Amino acid sequence: MPSATNTTASKPDGPRAVPISKAERENGTYSVPSLQMALEGLHQDGMVILKNLVSDEHCDKHYAHMSGDRDRILEERHAGAKAYNQGVKCEQLSVHNNITILETTQADDVSKANILQAPCFTKPELLFDDLYFNTFVIQVMNGYLGEKPKWVMSTGNNALAGTGGLRQPVHKDTRFKHPKCPFLVIANTALVDFTEENGATEFWLGTHAYSDETSQTIATETTVFGKQRIGEPACPIREEAVEARRAIRPPVRAIMNKGDVMLRDFRCWHAGMPNGTDKDRIMIAQAWMAPWFPNYRTRLNLPLSQAKYFMGHNKKMEVVANLTSDEAVEFDQHRDNFDFAPTHYYDYYDSAHKNYEYPFQY
CB of 39 within 8 A of CB of 140? Predict the structure, then answer.
């Protein structure tokens, strides 16, 4: 009689990686099995990696421009610690009225480990369809977010070279009570290989579906950001929530090759990791919003000089943008000034019947 014991070694945890076949590339669309694999990754894990979608040549051209522009961005855009991406020097968890609060102070080293650095929209020689209008990304976004998803924001992330042991706190990017269903996805294109050594992002797979804003710290008078209100969720995850989740499903690292595109549900916990190499680790980001989601504020700022390129692709997606001067586009880039909170029906999240229960509560 065969043994009932399963002797097969379990595979290490990690996100799904969707390969692309020669036939799929020629057709410009995924087959049904490939599309299903991508959608299952997003629904179950909150993150999936689409392999080999952007050409090495296009990645190299963008990397050369962005790494060459890094020092100017640091000097002109990131003079204060609040401009850095989830950057804090000192963080202290305190408890007030049984609610965990993350208190931060502006300072030096850790804030300079990870910056927002957007791609260049004003140079036509840097505008590529496989980067900004990738048919495979658009196909998956239609399947996950709904017909004709909206491209509403673009930025980039640079894990600066030689930042030692400096890392971001575990966080999610929502500073508001968010829907408990897919409403926003960030598509990150790796301009270089992403390794543990150069700061591949840490992800807490499944947290998009198995947690809500109660796992987050709350905004205080000193940490409130932009249009956020005191008492609303702040990005960092409560320490006790992190440890509770670690016991169930520990984090993984998003290892990618140059030209891969990582899709992450906006609700998924993650953290930028230190780059111990002598080369910046850069990825470009696009924000894709569900067509039904009631945010009518967030828009791309695109150069009027390149309007024919950017506004000529509105077939299976929508570009939501203001067209302005090259100078205005450059001034607005590299800043954390985007707001994804609902502009309408916000009181729904305070009054709606809470008819869901998570397998565990934090």
Answer: yes
Q: Is the pTM of this model over 0.85?
A: yes
- In order, the DSSP letters of 173-232 are S--S---SS--EEEEEEESS-B-TTTTPPEEETTTTTS--GGGEEE--TTT--TT--TTS
Chain centre distance of CA 173: 8
Structure confidence at residue 114 as a pLDDT band (50, 70, 90) = confident
Alpha-carbon distance of 87 to 114, in angstroms, equals 7
Burial class from Cβ neighbours inside 10 Å (0-12, 13-18, 19+) for residue 144 reads buried
Residues pairing with 101 in the sheet? 94
Distance CA 132, CA 286 (A): 8
CB 187 within 8 A of CB 119: no
* pLDDT value, residue 348: 80
pLDDT for 190: 98
Question: Per-residue pLDDT tens for 210-228?
Answer: 888 889 999 998 888 877 8
User: Hey, what amino acid is at 29?
Assistant: T
**Token digits of residue 361:** 């509560």
Please indicate whether residue 236 or residue 314 has the higher confidence score (pLDDT): 236
* Of the candidates 126, 161, 195, the residue with the CA atom closest to the CA atom of residue 275: 161
Distance (Å, rounded) from C-alpha 199 to C-alpha 254?
Answer: 9
